[in-house]
């Protein structure tokens, strides 16, 4: 397998074979994100991707169970090319259980329901999607490239095609100014299309990004640990589900995990207990470890 630049993958794909299908991110414009800031976006050729899959088969044997195709927004690839790769991967690894890509609503909306159905048939089982917030004001300010109603529409479409959705919410991305709206609107949007997983991350300023500069200049006010926990509490209190909520990231102040709606009370009680711990016991991780 050949890799270019830093390869990012969700923690839930730690055991997966990683095959880069795209390099960089075709949006590359979110004000908080430093992942691909200096990388020129391109789509790798199907021939190169297949060659990597063949190399992986020679290296690992045919026992690979899960594959994640980085980099950012691989869902943007032409549907027939993606289908070609997915079928080839299944040929290489007959015991495959899961194949996944990144795809934000900006790129999900480029595909029709029928294309998602064909992708599901070819073996695309899950899409990791960075929603970050359901608040239009926050989405606009961070240049996410889609609105809350577009997120709902695309979420429903992907779910209707039978593809799992893993949605990422960024605690604190509304700053102090929009913490309430961010929590309440994110809950409203998630309840409207019920992804399979809601995964929480906490915003950490990343040097070299516009939002880092805003934070340095005092234009963006970062949440304190207690404020981040209160925002998480408000979000969870307003979530209906059904879905699994996970805090599977080093940036979070608390390991809040469970199934909604059943575990809601337990999760809220955990947060309340943490809010009784002195605030200086909580440490924010450095962006180098994200
Ligand atoms: S958050 Fe996702 S869509 Fe936004 S720039 Fe980063 S990789 Fe691209």
TrEMBL record:
Alphabetically ordered keywords of this record: Iron, Iron-sulfur, Metal-binding, S-adenosyl-L-methionine
Pfam families to which the protein is assigned, alphabetical: Radical_SAM
Protein's name according to its UniProt entry: Radical SAM protein
Domain of life (superkingdom): Bacteria
Domain Radical SAM core: 9-242
Gene3D superfamilies: Aldolase class I (3.20.20.70)
Annotated signal sequence range: none
InterPro entries: Aldolase_TIM, BchE-like, Elp3/MiaA/NifB-like_rSAM, rSAM, rSAM_sf
Keyword Iron-sulfur set for record: yes
A single GO molecular function term of this UniProt record: iron-sulfur cluster binding
Necessary cofactors: [4Fe-4S] cluster
């Amino acid at each position: 397998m050949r890799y270019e630049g830093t390869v990012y993958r969700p923690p839930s794909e730690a055991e997966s074979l990683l095959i880069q299908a795209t390099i960089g991110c075709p949006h590359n414009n979110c004000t908080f994100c430093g992942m691909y800031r200096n990388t020129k976006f391109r789509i790798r050729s199907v021939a190169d991707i297949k060659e990597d899959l063949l190399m992986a088969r020679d290296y690992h044997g045919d026992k690979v169970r899960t594959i994640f195709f980085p980099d950012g927004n691989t869902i943007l690839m032409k549907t027939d090319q993606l289908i070609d790769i997915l079928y080839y991967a299944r040929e290489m690894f007959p015991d495959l259980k899961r194949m996944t890509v990144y795809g934000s609503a900006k790129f999900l909306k480029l595909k029709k329901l029928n294309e998602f159905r064909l992708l599901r048939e070819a073996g695309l089982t899950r899409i990791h999607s960075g929603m970050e917030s359901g608040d239009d004001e926050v989405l606009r300010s961070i240049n996410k490239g889609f609105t809350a109603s577009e997120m709902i529409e695309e979420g429903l479409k992907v779910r209707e095609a039978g593809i799992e959705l893993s949605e990422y919410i960024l605690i604190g991305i509304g700053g102090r100014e929009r913490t309430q709206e961010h929590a309440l609107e994110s809950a409203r949007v998630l309840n409207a299309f019920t992804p399979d997983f809601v995964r929480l991350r906490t915003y950490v300023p990343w040097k070299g990004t516009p939002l880092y500069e805003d934070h340095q200049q005092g234009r963006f006010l970062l949440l304190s640990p207690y404020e981040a926990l209160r925002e998480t509490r408000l979000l969870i209190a307003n979530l209906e589900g059904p879905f699994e909520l996970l805090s599977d990231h080093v940036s979070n102040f608390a390991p809040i995990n469970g199934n909604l709606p059943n575990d809601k009370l337990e999760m809220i009680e955990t947060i309340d207990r943490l809010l009784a711990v002195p605030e200086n016991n909580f440490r924010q991780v450095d962006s180098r470890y994200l």
